[in-house]
Amino acid sequence: MYRSLLISLFLFLTAYTAWSQYPHQDINEELLTRAWSAQWIAHPEVSLQEYSVQHFRNTFSLEDAPEEFVIHVSADNRYQFFVNGKLLGRGPARGDLLHYRFESYNIADLLQAGENVLAAVVWNFAEDAPVAQHTYRTGLIVQGNKEAEAIVNTNPEQWQVYHNQAYDPLTQADFTVYGYYASGACDRVDGSVYPWGWETLDYSSNNEWVTPRARVVGRPYGFRYGYGDGAINLYPRNIPMLEEKTERMAEVERASVTVDAAFVQGNQPVTIPANQQATILLDQTYLTMGYPQLTVSEGAGSKMKVTYAEALYDENRKKGNRNETEGKEIVGFYDIFLPDGGENRTFQPLWIRTFRYLQLDITTGDEPLVLEDLSHQYTAYPFEKTAFIQTDEPTMDSIWDVSWRTARLCALETYMDCPYYEQLQYVGDTRIQALISLYVDGDDRLMRNALFQFANSITSEGITMSRYPSGLPQYIPPYALFWINMLHDYHMHRTDDDFVQQFVPGMTRVLQWYETYVDTNDLLKGMPWWNYVDAIPEFDRGTPPGAQDGHSTFITLQYLYTLQQAIELYDYFGLTEFADHYQQIADKIQSAVQETSYDDSRQLYADTPEKKHYSQHTNIFAVLTQTAPEEKWQPIMQRTVADTSLAACYIYFRFYLHRAMQQAGLGDYFVEHQDIWKDMLAEGLTTFAEHDEDTRSDCHAWSASPLYEYLATVGGITPAAPHFTEVRVAPNLGSLTEFEGEMPHPQGTISVKLNRKGKSSIQAEIALPEGVSGSFHWQGKQTDLRAGKQNINL
Question: 741 and 709 share a domain?
Answer without folding.
Answer: no
